[in-house]
Amino acid sequence: MFAASHLLAAAALFPASAAGIADSGPLAAPMYLRGGFNGWGIDHPLAYKGKGVYEADILVSPGYHGFKVGSKDWSAEWVIDPAASVTVAAGASYRMRTQSGPEDYLFVKQTSTWRFSVDASNPAAPLLRVAQMSIPSASRQDPHQGHAVSVSREYGSHTVRWSTPDAGAKLRSYTQSSTMPLRDPGPQSTTYQEAANTPTVRSGSLAFDALFALTAGEMKQNAVAQIKDGNYNGAAAIDCDCFETGEKWHYVWTRDLSYAADLGLAMLDPERVRNSLDFKLSGYRAGIERAPQVAGSADGLQIVQDTGSGGSWPVSTDRVAWVLGAQAALNNLAPAERAPFAARALRALVNTLDNDRLAAFDAASGLYMGEQSFLDWRDQSYAAWIVGDLASLASSKALSTNVLHYQALTLAASLAHDSGDAMRSTKYAGWAAALKRSINQRFWLEDAGMYSSLTAPHFDGAPLHKFDWLGQALAIVTGVADGERAHRILASYPHGPMGAPVIYPQQQGMPVYHNRAIWPFVTAYGLRAAAMHANVSVADAAYDTLMRGAALNLSNMENLEWITGQPLLLDEQRPALIGPVINSRRQLWSVGGYLGMVIGNVFGIEVTDSGIDVRPFITSKLRREVFGASRTITLDNLAVRGKRINVRIALPDATNDSGWFPVESIAVGGQRMAQSIAWRQLPDNASIDITLGALQRGERQIRRVDAAQYAEGPDVFGPREPAIAGITKPGTLRIDAGGNGAGVVYNVYRDGKLIAARVAAGAWTDRAAPTAACYAIEAQFSASGNRSHHSVPRCTGTAIDIAPALDGVAQPHIKDWGKPGERLRFGAVNVVQGGEYGVQVRYHNRANQINLGISGGVKWLALKDASGRIAAQGVVQLPHARIDQAGAPLVMSTPLIARLKPGRYALEMSDFYNMSYLQSNSTFSAAGGADGPSNKFDVHGARLLRLK
Asked: Which helix (H) or strand (E) holds 54?
């Protein structure tokens, strides 16, 4: 039976059918074919063909494509089975249900046109039929015909060719072709033109010059006057001189924009970056009554955390990535434009940081909680059980997010100092210094020579032997990692044959996306880290990754499979593992990363607040293989703060030895300069001449790994996480192998500390078991040492359940509680044994799916003793939870940790806020959007769990 909300949605879609009135079609509102093949957009409406049938034809590339039929604002969804995904077969008919659920899938072997037909004659049960229609024929025309100069390069079994009709032209036109099958349907070649208002490169390598022009052109394509997303503003365009996110993503997303700006865009178009960053700031909606615990100014201007896991912030807390883009924009904006943006940035940072301190900071560890930055597809990089317990994801700590908080605090301290607010500057500088110490104490794994990417969640908290390249690189480039640790990280992080994967080890049973993938923007940060510490091997690997990716794909793609470098790796035996699952051309942060590689690393130009730093990092391999035909390379027409700059690098002789070439001399207008050049030393039209010196050895350590394309072996994968099947006193655990076979051992953790290593599955007894403790198990491959995520923690302490109460009367549960301003009291509780307790709310939040929305529950919880004194208080999170066929499985909130004495206590929950309270989300299509803020959920009680 459909829920009442789904029946109402169906009635709105089918009023004519419900009334028995014949018309041109049963749908009163348009429905769209939406999936991975069209960026989940609305460019393929279902067109009425008569007799209740609607059709959409779409050219689909090879892959395993998720899709749904949905309305423009997602208020209506049609899926085949709301409980599970279905892979459709050509020619078969499927009954669809008019309710939300997981996407269905289409497996395509060859680029072809597919027809999706929906028979809506019976409004309660539309029928879907999918058929392959035609296969496009390949063009036989040579796109390089008639061009004066042409070069080609072999990449394995594929060839890339570049040509130009006039190599001597001031602004060249290029044609580029590739024999590698492209991710998306289209020709195997592209033509692009250098522009008068963007820089150009002349290096003696037509390919290198062309790829820079390709990327500069893609930056221009991403520079738009309007943005749009199907979930905002009724899918209508929004005026904004901004950067959209890519060919398939026409909105501004906080983290994508900010990383792209930091890597390269802010130097080339700081005003548009500033506009885009400003779009990602928002105050509270009008009429919102702010809870007394909420910090900051009355307007609440702060950084927006985009929709995501569990209902967005503070399950995800990487909105502070915004500071990377803001710092880059501030460095590049002219003084008159910098000042107002600096003031606005400080105001937004104060509100963001002070509320993050309340909602996401764990004083016990000195770290911020929240999901890993950008690795926001939970199944891909977290334990398999975490998707059913997003409060545990929320309470874990991530290296990348904590480094971003460090950078945000550092920028806030600097801006506060510049504004004359010494007290605030001192506060944030102190927080930053303390956070840096905590990162180095809590995340560093000496045995691995790297930082852990993340900790296990509450009731465990141990740093995991899981690693990500973005987190490691950010720790290096921000200075969180000192020189010795930076050298060890660069030498220790594994690189596949095509470059560094974004996570390591890989996770079994997961398709390519974050798992088993290279992301060019992450590679660009790895290059920046390698150049800072002169690791030649890691830098060369990054240069190869970025240039090869742009060459073979005729574009700067979002991601690539890590063993083959392909934009799509088909796995016909296991189509659910095909990927990258989602990909797009001219992805903004990939574009920013490539531009930064050329301008910031090859030519070494970095803009600071006081001037320009000149630190090129040209390796002997780059000199020999890319610039071998030239004695000089030039970057012309670079506009920085109103100045036009030309950069010329005189190259040493090429050599077969490995190393890099340091700067021997720098001159501006014939006058010798240091590597840091002040603004006053640069004329409006400046020529910077750089001469490189003798080869230096540099660092050459790099860890190389390899694997078969489809294998999930122990060398590069981690084991599946085990489970604790049960605990019997006094501390005997039954270790469930979790599907792992031979060659796997198990490590036992108590309260986040390793207490037993390399034990066998089955029964294991803690001989020193305390009265109350929490245990977790980790699997480890004996041969490679690769480890799993930790199991669900199991605690042995006493649990005390408390019922919610209305008007002093206990209730079994309370539905849809949590309107702004509401308070909820629980029944009184007697604590017999003193100790440390975790206080949690038992709830269910069905406002949206677990990977979407802005309506995660965020509330203030206070525990008072009999005298009314606060024993513990703080923010608790109640994220979206899965709904299974049985209804709503109950879950627990993040815990409030309290040290209690024996006695009687009272528990009360009141409002805080979430992202739905922000004005920028007032047009969002789902819960928390156009109908007002949503911070509601069903309350089924609370629990006090003794931990120690």
From this structure: strand 53-60
Per the CB < 8 A criterion, the answer to whether 513 and 579 are in contact is: yes
In CATH, what number does 4-134 get?
2.60.40.3620
Q: Which residues of the chain have pLDDT under 70?
A: 1-24, 884-888
In the 8-state DSSP scheme, what is residue 600?
I
Q: CB neighbours of 445 closer than 8 A, spacing ≥ 6?
A: 451, 452, 463, 465
Strands (E), 535-624: 560-561, 605-607, 611-614, 618-619
CA-CA distance, 397 to 393, in Å (whole number)?
8
Place of tokens 């104490």: 441
pLDDT value, residue 888: 67
The phi and psi torsions of 919 (rounded to 5 degrees) equal -60, -35
Residue type for 633, please?
A: I
Class of domain 611-703: mainly beta
Strand partners, 691: 650, 665
What dihedral angle (degrees, nearest 10) is formed by the CA atoms of 185, 189, 193, 197?
A: 40
Residues 6+ apart with CB under 8 A from 931: none
Name beta bridge partners: 908.
825, 862
Alpha helices (runs of H) in 185-226, residue ranges in sequence order: 206-222
Give me the helices (H) in 35-132, please. Answer: none
pLDDT confidence of residue 455? 98
- How far CA 218 is from CA of 514, 695, 898, 918, in Å, comes to 23, 35, 53, 32
For 96, 497, 667, the CA distances from 702, given in Å and listed in that order, are 52, 12, 35
Residue with tokens 């957009």: 41
Question: The tokens 């509780």 sit on which residue?
Answer: 829
* Cβ-contact 391, 937 below 8 angstroms: no
Give the Å distances, CA to CA, from 404 to 308, 309, 401, 522, 741.
18, 19, 5, 14, 39
**Going by C-beta distance under 8 Å and a sequence separation of 6 or more, which residues neighbour residue 487?**
533, 535, 699, 701
Distance, CA of 590 to CA of 580 (rounded, Å): 15
Residue 261, classed as helix, strand or coil, is helix
Q: Give 675-725 pLDDT, tens digit per residue.
A: 999 999 999 999 999 999 999 999 999 999 999 888 899 999 999 999 999
Rounded Cα–Cα distance for residues 876 and 840 (Å): 8
Distances (CA, A) of 829 to 565, 809, 825, 895, 901: 59, 14, 12, 17, 12
**Residue 759, beta-bridge partner list:** 746
Distances (CA, A) of 107 to 73, 468, 595: 26, 30, 35
Instruction: List C-alpha distances in Å: 766 to 363, 462, 560.
Output: 29, 18, 45
> Residues with Cβ < 8 Å from 890, sequence gap 6 or more?
842, 843, 844, 940
- CA dist list (Å): 112 to 44, 130, 185, 301, 707: 16, 13, 8, 48, 31
The residue written with tokens 């797009």 in the block is 584
What is the Cα–Cα distance from 188 to 140, expressed in whole angstroms? Answer: 11
Residue type at position 839 = V
One of 2.60.40.2380, 3.30.230.10, 1.50.10.10, 1.10.1040.10 is the CATH number of 313-488, namely 1.50.10.10
Number of neighbours of residue 185 by Cβ within 10 angstroms: 15
Rg of the chain, C-alpha, whole Å: 28
CATH number listed for the domain at residues 705-794: 2.60.40.10
| 655 φ/ψ angles, rounded to the nearest 5 degrees | -145, 155
User: What is the token pair recorded at 283?
Assistant: 């105050």
Q: What is the C-alpha separation between 800 and 930, in angstroms, rounded? A: 40
Residue boundaries of the structural domains of the chain: 4-134, 149-200, 313-488, 611-703, 705-794, 799-946
* DSSP notation for 806-823: ETTEE-S-EEEE--TT--
pLDDT the model gives residue 3: 36
Query: Which fold is adopted by the domain 799-946?
Result: Jelly Rolls (2.60.120)
- pTM (two decimals): 0.94
